[in-house]
């Protein structure tokens, strides 16, 4: 059932390395894409909640490993975002890239709000409005712009890992 | 017998409900937070950090090289070198100016303060490479490629050639996490250079600037004034350059003035830092 762990985990790990070590070292200040979030949201649309929730949890734990924020913050926020994105019957539109791309924008905003809320519950000071204006919304726009690329990559992986049942008549 | 495979007996696996699946992963996430708070994950995280750190160094270097190559396409190489040399000279001159002003101030101020500075003059530094930025843009922390094995301890001051970067908040054997002064949870007591009474608390802002609060109304503060660490509280050594006042909010009705400070350090392009191993922060 589902995508093998040896496909999902390296993909998510590579995404974390890209966003924590590769893009910051490029020195382009505004370019801080959240690839893990994009992957979880798009996978939620492609495969539904049953696979999106483990992806959100594992991706979140990997993000937490690379973060100074309280451990588990990203995992919990991503699990909730994955659930929201896989609610309904989004996978019916999985061949149309527009829905996942639009979803990435709103999911980025939701993830940012949840992350800030969870930081606040750990008594970390949170300047809500400035964080939203200067980090969350610009980050959501960058994620949305890059989402078609992530969608293209994941649809290929999704097709390769899709289970086909040979019916023996 | 299964219709799909006549050799295997049919088994019916009940599908979990979405809510049960969600609750399971929410519980696992909260469990991870609690386990980490009780230090149950310290060893696995330390092992993971040892494995991941070389990868982070490699990826970061590849990106730095790629960045340099990319910039090389749009500039003539000698201009870039000249620019870098000039930038370094400007950095050094700013640092020198600040150091000279600090020395001048120290000479004018109380002998005790001067003695304190001299006692801390023999500072030891450990250089380290920034190997990762926080995976969340909402958190102002970086990971550097030196840890407890190199003698780094929690609370140590981290600087760059331009000025104050932050302090070490956690470490593994091979890496350390640095809370940068631009993180909203960071708090540094600073002073306006040349105006000894004009101290205030600097708080990080998401736009990369610092908000200097609680500056007494009686003190004269001007735009372009240089802000340094005051040394009060004992968390940071005194007279480390922090930034320059770019905006001032003074109202007669308020008890304190508020200043916006532009840090000297460009935190988004941080590559190498120095950890002050000679200064022992006071643990309050």
Structural commentary:
The complex is a heterodimer of chains A (169) and B (284). Chain A is mostly helical and 169 residues long. Chain A has one domain. Helices cover 73% and strands 0% of the residues of chain A. Chain A is built from six helices and no strands. Chain A has helices at residues 5-26, 35-47, 49-65, 73-86, 98-121, 128-161. In chain A, helix 1 crosses helix 3 (49-65). Chain A is globular. Chain A starts with a helix and ends in an 8-residue tail after the last helix. The relative contact order of chain A is 0.15. With 284 residues, chain B is an alpha+beta fold. In chain B, 33% of the residues lie in helices and 26% in strands. In chain B, the strands form two sheets. Chain B has a six-stranded antiparallel β-barrel with strand order 1-2-5-4-3-12. A six-stranded antiparallel barrel of chain B has the order 6-7-8-11-10-9. Chain B is globular, with a radius of gyration of 25 Å. The N and C termini of chain B lie far apart (72 Å). At the A-B interface, helix 1, helix 3, helix 4, helix 5 and helix 6 of A face helix 1, helix 2 and strand 1 of B.
Number of DSSP strand runs of chain A:
0
Outline of chain B: globular
Q: What's the overall average pLDDT of chain B, rounded?
A: 82
Class computed from helices, strands and strand pairing of chain B: alpha+beta
Oligomerization state of this entry?
Answer: heterodimer
Q: Which two chains touch over the largest interface? A: A-B, 62 and 59 residues
Helix content of chain B: 25-40%
- SSE order of chain B: HHHHEEEEEEEEEEEE
Strand order of the largest sheet of chain B: 1-2-5-4-3-12
Gyration radius from CA atoms of chain A, angstroms:
16 Å
Number of helices of chain B: 4
Number of discrete helical segments of chain A: 6
Radius of gyration of chain B: 25 Å
* Proportion of helical residues of chain A: over 70%
Strand tally of chain B: 12
Strand content of chain A: under 5%
């Amino acid at each position: 059932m589902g995508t093998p762990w040896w496909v999902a985990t390296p993909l998510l790990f590579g995404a974390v390395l890209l966003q924590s070590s590769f893009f910051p070292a490029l020195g382009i200040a505004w370019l801080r894409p959240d690839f893990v979030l994009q992957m979880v949201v798009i996978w939620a649309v492609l495969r539904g909640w049953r696979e999106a929730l483990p992806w959100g949890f594992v991706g979140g734990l990997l993000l937490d490993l690379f973060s100074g924020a309280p451990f588990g913050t990203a995992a919990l926020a991503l699990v909730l975002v994955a659930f929201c994105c896989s609610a309904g019957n989004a996978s019916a539109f999985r061949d149309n890239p527009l829905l996942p791309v639009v979803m990435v924008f709103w999911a980025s905003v939701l993830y940012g709000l949840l992350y800030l809320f969870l930081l606040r519950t750990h008594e970390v000071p949170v300047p809500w409005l400035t964080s939203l204006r200067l980090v969350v919304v610009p980050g959501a726009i960058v994620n949305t712009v890059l989402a078609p690329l992530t969608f293209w990559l994941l649809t290929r992986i999704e097709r390769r890992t899709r289970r086909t049942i040979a019916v023996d008549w | 017998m299964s219709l799909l495979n006549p050799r295997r007996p049919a088994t019916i696996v009940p599908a979990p409900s979405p809510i049960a699946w969600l609750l399971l992963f929410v519980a696992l996430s909260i469990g991870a937070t609690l386990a980490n708070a009780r230090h149950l994950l310290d060893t696995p995280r330390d092992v993971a950090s040892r494995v991941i750190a070389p990868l982070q160094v490699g990826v970061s270097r590849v990106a730095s090289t790629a960045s340099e190559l990319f910039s090389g396409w749009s500039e003539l190489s000698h201009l870039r070198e000249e620019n870098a040399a000039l930038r370094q000279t400007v950095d050094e001159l700013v640092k020198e100016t600040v150091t000279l002003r600090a020395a001048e101030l120290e000479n004018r101020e109380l002998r005790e303060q001067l003695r304190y500075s001299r006692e801390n003059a023999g500072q030891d530094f450990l250089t380290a490479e920034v190997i990762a930025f926080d995976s969340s843009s909402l958190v102002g922390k970086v990971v550097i490629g030196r840890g407890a094995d190199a003698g780094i301890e929690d609370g140590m001051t981290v600087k760059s050639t331009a000025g104050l970067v932050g302090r070490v908040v956690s470490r593994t054997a091979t890496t350390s996490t640095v809370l940068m002064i631009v993180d909203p949870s960071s708090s540094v007591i600073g002073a306006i250079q040349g105006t000894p009474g004009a101290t205030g608390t600097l708080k990080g802002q998401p736009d990369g600037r610092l908000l200097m609060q609680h500056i007494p109304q009686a003190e004269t503060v001007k735009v372009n004034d240089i802000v340094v660490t005051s040394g009060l509280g004992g968390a940071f050594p005194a007279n480390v350059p922090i930034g320059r006042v770019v905006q001032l909010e003074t109202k007669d009705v308020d008890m304190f003035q508020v200043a916006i400070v532009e840090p000297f350090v460009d935190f988004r392009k941080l590559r190498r830092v120095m950890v002050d191993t000679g200064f022992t922060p006071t643990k309050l």
